[in-house]
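Example S7 (structure tokens).
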């Protein structure tokens, strides 16, 4: 996070990159289910903080971009995007979430960037 403004989005990026590269820093096993449950919980907490339904919005977004189902985003990635393949699903999870946050129709990235995190010296 060097040379970047310390805002909620840069902190999210840092955590998300670390989770992708070193999942066992955060979770007890490297399965899709465990990682996706961690991300769901993180999004719930983050959404509570910024007063946004991130998991719901991600589910609606992912279904609108592909097959229109009633699946929550975690199940959609595993079942539809990855044909129940755990390794493919883990890769798709990170790809789809980055696409979601970078979609110009989604205002979450800008919302998170606007929240500055003060550093204590």
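Recovered sequence:
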């Amino acid at each position: 996070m060097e040379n970047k403004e310390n805002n909620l989005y840069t902190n999210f990026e840092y955590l998300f990159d670390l989770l992708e590269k070193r999942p066992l820093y955060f979770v007890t096993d490297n399965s899709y289910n465990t990682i996706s449950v961690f991300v769901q919980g993180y999004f719930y907490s983050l959404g509570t903080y910024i007063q946004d339904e991130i998991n719901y919005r991600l589910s609606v977004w992912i279904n609108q971009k592909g097959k229109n189902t009633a699946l929550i985003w975690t199940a959609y990635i595993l079942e539809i995007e990855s044909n129940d393949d755990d390794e493919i699903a883990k890769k798709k999870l990170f790809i789809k979430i980055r696409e979601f946050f970078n979609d110009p129709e989604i205002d979450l990235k800008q919302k998170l960037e606007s929240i500055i995190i003060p550093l204590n010296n």
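Notes on this example. The chain has a mean pLDDT of 93.
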